[in-house]
Amino acid sequence: MGLVKNVIDFVMDILETIVFIGSLFIVVYLFILTPNQVKGASMEPTFISGDYILTSRVTYKFRRPERGDVVVFKSPKNPDIEYIKRIIGLPGDKININDGAVSVNGQVITENYISATTNLWDTGCIKNNVEYSVPDGELFVMGDNRPRSSDSREFCAVPAQSMIGQVFYRYFPTNSVGAIVNPLPRSIR
């Protein structure tokens, strides 16, 4: 009988550990960080389709979003779809795109991370050399692969409450593992 009791105690200890670790994983996944897979070419060359990233759900509880942050948010067209884009404009910012050059509050920003010149669409929210004011509580976002990105140029600024979190780490592929650094100088963030 003593052997059976020891085996049962051992199995119960293992089950308690599994339940604890599983519960911890669920809490971390739901409230702290979420793994995501990049799908599509809208963030090339920063992220390639198939890259795996970690998104912090708590960053913006401790600080405000900054221009240059890469974020995951719910699509304004279909909330079941998540987009990954870069914040270009904050609430109250004046955005102007003139012949491919992006200005924020009258200052042209240097975007070494983009793959092609910023284009516009005739049916989009943004028009060439027409200033757009980012409404309160919203963020202006764009993909790094401007010709292949559905973003604020098309559907205007997105509500801040649609933000899932800030992308802070790439964990696959192994040759690209590392922290995601905001490329914009502090003076314009």
From TrEMBL:
Domain Peptidase S26: 13-171
Transmembrane segments: 14-33
CDD domains: S26_SPase_I
Membrane topology term: Single-pass type II membrane protein
Single GO BP term: signal peptide processing
Gene Ontology cellular component list: membrane
Signal peptide start and end residues: none
Annotated InterPro entries: LexA/Signal_pep-like_sf, Pept_S26A_signal_pept_1, Pept_S26A_signal_pept_1_CS, Pept_S26A_signal_pept_1_Lys-AS, Pept_S26A_signal_pept_1_Ser-AS, Peptidase_S26
Gene3D superfamilies: Umud Fragment, subunit A
Catalytic residues (positions): 42, 85
Domain of life per record: Bacteria
Top EC group: hydrolase
Protein's recorded name: Signal peptidase I
Organism whose genome encodes this protein: Candidatus Roizmanbacteria bacterium GW2011_GWA2_35_19
Lineage: Bacteria, Candidatus Roizmaniibacteriota
